[in-house]
Amino acid sequence: MNARDFAMLLSLAALWGASFLFMRIATPAVGPFVTSDLRVLLAGAVLWIYAALIKNQPKLGQYWKEYFILGLINAAIPFAFISAAEMNLNASLAAILNATTPLFTALVAWGWTKEPLNWKKVMGLLIGVAGVSILTGWSPVPIGNKIVYSVGFSLLAALSYGFGGIYASRKFKGVKPLDLAIGQQLGAGVILLPFSIATIPNKVPPAEVLYSIAGLSILCTSIAYLFYFRLINNVGAVKTLSVTFLVPIFGVIWGSIFLHESIYLNTLVGMIVIFLSITLVTNLLPLKTKNNSA
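C-alpha cells predicted for EamA domain-containing protein (294 residues):
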C-alpha cells in the first residue's frame, strides 16, 4: 500500500467514524427514519451526479428488485437501527459495537453459504462476545433498559450488514461498484420514505442538525463509498478490510473532541478485545495449527 492509498484508507476511516458523530447530533432532533432517509437519498443523488460527470450513467433496471433488497438489508435497516441506538448511546460506543460486523458476517456465511467455521473463527466469535460484554457490562455508567435495547439495535445493525455483504457478493457479480452504490442508496431511500414521512418533525431543526445530515450524506456516504471502491481496486478487499479497525478509533476520537464523551477503561479494553476477535475471524492474525493450516 503506497502513501496515497494509505492516506485514502485513513480518510475513509475518519469519514465513517464521523458518521456516528453526525447521527448522534441529528437523530435526537429529527428521529432515526428521517435521518437515515435523508442520508441515503442525498447520497444517492450526489453519486448519480458524479456518475453523470464522469459519463458513467448507471444502469439500474436489470437488478431493480435486488437493489431494493440490498438497500433494505445493507442500508435502510442498519442505518435506522444505528440511528435509533444513538438516541441513548454515545457515538464512541456505537462505533465500537458496529465493528462486530465481520463477526456476524462470518456467522451469516456459515449459515447461508455453508462456509465452514474453523477453530480460529469460533474462538474469534467467542472473544467477540466477551468484548461486547466488557464494553457494555463493565461500565461506570448505569445500564438501564434503554441502554440494553440500544446495544441490541447496534448488534442487529451489524447482523444486517452481514446479510447485506453476503447478498451483494452473490447477486451482483460483474456489476459496476458505482452502480451498486447508487442502487443501494436509492433503494433504501424509497423503502424508508413512508416511515420518514410518518415521523417528520413539526419544526425546522437547528442548523447543526442540517449540517450533520449533509455531512452524513455527502462526506460519510457518497465520498466515503468512492474512497472504498477505489481502495478495493487499488489494494484489494483484504487490505481495505483493515478499515474495520480504524473506524472505531476515529469514532471515539470524534466523540471525545466534539461531543466531550468520556472514555472509560472498559471502552478501551472492550475495543481491543473486539479487535482481537476480528483478526481471528477474518484470518488477519496467522496462527498455526499442527498441520500448518488454519
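The mean pLDDT is 90.
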